[in-house]
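During the second year of the project, the team shifted from modelling isolated chains to modelling whole assemblies. The rationale, set out in the original proposal, was that interfaces cannot be judged from single-chain predictions alone. As a representative example for this report, we include one of the complexes processed in the last quarter. Its constituent sequences, exactly as entered into the pipeline, are reproduced here:
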Amino acid sequence: MIRLERLAKSFGSLRAVDDVSFSVPDGSITILAGADGAGKSTLLKMIVGLVKKDGGRVFLRDKDVSGDLGRVTAITGYMPERFSLYTDLSVEENMNFFADIHQVPRARRETLKKKLLEKTGMLAFRGRRAGALSGGMKQKLALSAILLASPEFILLDEPTTGVDPLSRIEFFNIIQDLKAEGRTILMATPYLAEAEKGDFVIFLRKGRVLKSDSISRLKKTFPARVFRLQPRLPVFEALKSLPPEQGLRQNVYIQGASLRCLEPPGKDFRRLIPHTKAEEENPTLEDIYIYYERSAGAPEGREA
Amino acid sequence: MADAVRVRNLVKRFGDFTAVDRISFEVRQGEILGFLGPNGAGKTTTIRMILGLLVPTSGEILIQGRDARREIKSVKRLMGYMSQQFSLYPLLTPAENVEFFAGISGLDRKAIRAKKEALAAGLSPSLMKQMIRAIPPGIRQKIALFVSMLADPEILFLDEPTSGVDPETRRHFWEEIYGLKQRGKTVLVTTHNLDEAEYADRMLIIDRGVIIVEGEPRALLQESRAASVEDLFKEAIRRHEAT
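Output from the structure prediction step:
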């Protein structure tokens, strides 16, 4: 288990992480979601000690590891948002380099490397220069590299940003395999459709936990009904011409060619939007995120 | 009226690798065209050729009916570009970036001041004082869009503008793109967020340098009976990979 207790970090007057506590259960995939600047990356960096905490404690396997970097890195793999391997080295050379850093014994090295590159589908590309890999392949290589240390805890910072949809699915399948092996995964992502396959979610907002729970429970206890509306007007027009009814604008958003309409108890927002078709649907993680995020107020810089 | 962009049999080879393989398509005046495809399919290469940043191996590019290679100076003025990577200077403030890029675009002092004021009207004063690198990515992208519109281009190319941007900010960004269309601008936009393709008037899917799907999102969905653009995309790529 990863347990965070009252973590805090400020940069000047900005409270990037503000009194954050939560746990990541063993063998789960926990998703860290939230607007840009909500504190996701800072939080991950604080766990592995890349950003110094102002306060709070980090527990791994119920041991307080704050300040014990050696202990953290021995059992934790961290994959930063930006590709951080050597672009001038081949896939194989990058793996060798990381095997050296992690002091993987020579005897085990070849088998482990082969196993990991096979797992991530990168074996066929072992001779290719890392700089010449596609976005999705780079991320798979970066993941393979951190797996060399056989980490129990895996922290991923937006691993699929800029990666095409098919490679994204592939990458997430690998993450699910890692979970099946019993590893514990904490992953920040802006793609909530992808996050649906996780077990738990933590929504951050302005450095604080906005909402956190198991994904299934969040859905079960979601207070609003969700409708997919086919508006009479094109979606952007329909959105612009919403009547000034209290709470309406806050609960309607565009999704492809339809509008999503969230109706808290006692509200009948649908009748205020001219539409040709309305279907009730189960809430998605995106519905839930937008609902709570908007209930908390407009995000900073919204007016930009 | 001539199409905003017309591409005929466009080819780009790098050594023995064919990045773009005889593609033809057009971007119609005043439309939003969604340009989709896997990483490395040829999207950015195509855009860079249209913009004159990369010389095609062969093929023809017409911008509002004019030959893009022969009349490069005049057609360049018609086009704006927001690249995949941030095209802003990270150590400058939003206003300094505007000043710099407006200067390059040949705006005079008065016009530059007006642009800076317009930007300030849409950003909180605290953000205006920050360096770009300290500003959240979603807002940075909006500033980058503002900058790419400084010279008031007719045709705008947005390369993955919503990559890594949270769900709320992505939608605000699309409202801005739609606002450009309403002002009569033509927009070509690439994205990996496939639900966004439905905001476009038409969409193209390119894979391994070849266009494999072209049409209006809604019509394509009906025709293929796919539940979403994502399903349509997966199926199209799967079929193409099998060939």
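The longest strand of chain B covers residues 17-27. Residues 88-148 of chain B form one domain.
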